[in-house]
Amino acid sequence: MEVxxxxxxxxxxxxxxxxKSPAHIAAAGVSIILALALAGLPSGxxxxxxxxxAMVTGVVIETL
Length: 64
Known about the structure:
Layout: H1 6-18, H2 22-37, H3 45-63
Helix pairs in contact: 2-3
C-alpha cells in the first residue's frame, strides 16, 4: 500500500491551523497560485516571485 501522501497531508494540516487572519489566508492563496503558475521558470525563481508577491499581499490586506 502506498503511503507517500501522508507527509504532505501532515504538513498541510499543520499549516492550515496557522492560517488565522484574512491576511494569512490571502497570502497563502497567492503563494500557491503563483508558485504553480510560475513553476517553469529557471533556478526556482518562480518560487521566489511567489513568496515576494505573497508577502506584499499579506501586508496590503493587513493594512486595509
